[in-house]
Amino acid sequence: MNIKTIARLAGVSVATVSKIINNYPDIGEETRQRVLKIMEETGYRPSSSAKTLATKKSNLVGVVFAGKLNVDFSHPFFVEVINAFKKQIGLLGYDLLFFSNEKFLDQGEDYLARSKYFQVDGCIIIAGDEVESSVSDLDASPIPCIGIDIEMNGQNSCYIMSDNEKISTKVVEQFYMNGYRDLGFIGLQRASLVMQHREKAFKQSLKQFSLEENPEWLVYSQDYAATDGYEAAKQLLQADVLPRAVFAATDLLAFGAVRAFKEAGLRVPEDIAVAGCDDIEACRYSDPPLTTVKQDTDKIGRLAAMILFDLMNKQMDNRCIKVEPELVLRRSCGTLLAYQ
Amino acid sequence: MNIKTIARLAGVSVATVSKIINNYPDIGEETRQRVLKIMEETGYRPSSSAKTLATKKSNLVGVVFAGKLNVDFSHPFFVEVINAFKKQIGLLGYDLLFFSNEKFLDQGEDYLARSKYFQVDGCIIIAGDEVESSVSDLDASPIPCIGIDIEMNGQNSCYIMSDNEKISTKVVEQFYMNGYRDLGFIGLQRASLVMQHREKAFKQSLKQFSLEENPEWLVYSQDYAATDGYEAAKQLLQADVLPRAVFAATDLLAFGAVRAFKEAGLRVPEDIAVAGCDDIEACRYSDPPLTTVKQDTDKIGRLAAMILFDLMNKQMDNRCIKVEPELVLRRSCGTLLAYQ
DNA sequence: CTGAAAGCGCTTACAG
DNA sequence: CTGAAAGCGCTTACAG
C-alpha cells in the first residue's frame, strides 16, 4: 500500500495525494475529502524512509550516552533528564533514536557516522565520565547538538547543566547556618567536569565563610559506588581531628560514608553530619534520611528539547544554560543550634 | 556524498560499490581495496533511509512503553530491562527507536501505524497498567513483537515475565521458615496481570502451608506510590489482631507500610516483619534494610532480545517464558527463631 | 486546483 | 568478476 495506489483509487495524481498528506492549502476540498476517505479505508501509512530520502529530514533525534555511562543508562539523573526530554521533543514532533553503541564502537565507527547514516535532525549528548573523543566530531559537525553535563563548542551546539557551583555553595551555606565550622568533602579521584565544579565551589565557599580548608578532610573516592564512598570515608576517619560535617559529591558516596561512620561508632548526624547530592529515591528511606541537593532534571530535559528544536529550525548562538539546583533538607545534616 | 560519487571516483559501477559495502564475496580483491580506500578517504557513509526503502528492512526495533508507564519510564524495573535489552539487541545489529507517544496518541494514531511508518523490524512492548487497546493491533500484526509483563497472543509474538507466582511463594516460604504464621498482604486495587499473579500465588501459598487467610490482613493500595502503601497499611492496622508479617507487592508500598507501622509504635521487624518486591536501590539503605524479591532484569532484557531476534529472522511459535526471581534477605523480615 | 516527471540513494535480478 | 537498469515510495519545482 503506497501513495501510488491511493492516487489510482482516488483518480488523482500522486502529487495531489502528497500535498494532502502534508496539509498543503491549495487543494480542492472535495478532492481532499475523497482522498482522505480512501486513505482511512485502506489504512494507508506513508513510509518514513521514502520521506526522509526525499526531504533529507528524518524527524529523528539521536540519543548519545557518551563516556562511561554509555554501557548503562540506569542512573536516575540520566533517566529523568531523558524522560523529560522525550516528552517535550515528542510534543514537538520528533521521535528518539538510541544508538546501540556496543556493536558499532567495536567496529571503530563513531557517533557522527551513525548520525549521518540515520540522517537524524539533531542529537542530545548525555555525558558521563571519560567521554570518547568521537563526541567532538559530532560537536564540530553541522548536526545540531545539545549537551547535558558536557561542554560543547560547535557552531550548532548548546549545552545545559545544573549550576554545580551553586550545589556546593548551598550545602556549605546550610552547614554553616546549622552551626558547623569543620567541613569535609568526599570527591572523585578522576573528576568529571561536573565533579570539578562541585569541588572547586566547595573550596571557594569555605573561603567565603572563612572556614578552614583542612587537607585531611578532603578525600577522593575511586569510583561512584557506595562502596567507594565507604572506602573514602574510612580514609577520612584517620584524620587527627574529624570534621563535624561532610559533603559527599553524590548520594551513593554519602550512603557509603554513613555506613563507615556508623561502623566507627559515630552517630549521624549527632556526631557527624552528612549531605549528598542527586536526591535519589533512597534518600527518603535511608537511616537517617539524607539531606541532599536535587537537580531540576525535569527542567533540564525540557529546556534541552526546546533549545535543540530551535537549533534544528533556526540559527542560534552557541551558549551554555545553567539550571538552579534545590537543597532538600532531611535529618542527616542535623544542626548544632538545638544544643546551644 | 553518495554511492554514485564513490562509483565514479573508483571507476566502477554503483552495483559494485553496493556489493562491497554489503560484503558480497564475488568481487575482485583489487577492486574491493580500491573502493574501500576511496570510501575511507571521502568519509562516505551509506544512507539508512535509502537502504531501508530498497530493502524493506530498517534494522530498527521499536520500543513501546504501553499503558500508564508510557508517560514515565523512570521505574527501575523498566530501565534495567530495557538497558539489558539494548545491549543485547545492539550486539545483534539493531538500534532502538523510542516512539514519542505524547503527540501521536493525541492525534489518535496508534503503535501499529507508527511501526509501519518507521518500518521497524520488530517491537518490544513493556507494559504497565491499563494498557491501551492499540497494543493488541500491534500484537495481531505481522510485525514480530516481544512483550514484557504482558500477555501476547499474536502469531509473531512472544512474551516474557518474571515468574510472579514464585515471587509470592518464596516470600511466604521464607516467612514460614522464620516462624511467622499470621501473614498479611498489600496488593493493588486495580491489579495488573503481574499483580494478579502475585496475589493469587500469595493465597495459594498460604493454603500450602495451612496458614489462615484472614480477610482483614488483605488490603489494597490505591496506586504505586509509597504514600499509597502508607494508607493501605493504616487500614491494615485497624484489624482486630495484627498479622505478624506483611508482604507488600512492591518495595515502594513496603516503604510506605514501614512508615505507617513505625508511626503506630510498632518496631520492624521485631513487632511486624515486612517484605517487598523489586529490590530497588533504596532497599539497601532503608531502616531497616528491606527484604525483597529481585527480578532478574538482566536476564529478562537479554532473553527478550534473543527471542525477538529469532522472531524477526525465522519462524517461531508463540510462547511465554518465565524467569526465575531471587529472594534477597535483609533485616526487615526478621525471624522468630532467635527468640525461641 | 491538478498532474507529469525528475530525483532522493540505495539494492537486486539479470546479462555478459 | 562487473555493469546497466528498474524499482523502493516519497517530494517538489514546473507547467498548465
TrEMBL record, chains A, B:
Gene3D superfamilies: 3.40.50.2300, lambda repressor-like DNA-binding domains
GO MF term set: DNA binding
Transmembrane segments: none
HTH lacI-type domain: residues covered: 1-55
Domain of life: Bacteria
Entries under InterPro entries matching the protein: HTH_LacI, LacI/GalR-like_sensor, Lambda_DNA-bd_dom_sf, Peripla_BP_I
UniProt keyword terms in alphabetical order: DNA-binding, Transcription, Transcription regulation
Protein name (record): LacI family DNA-binding transcriptional regulator
Organism: Paenibacillus cucumis
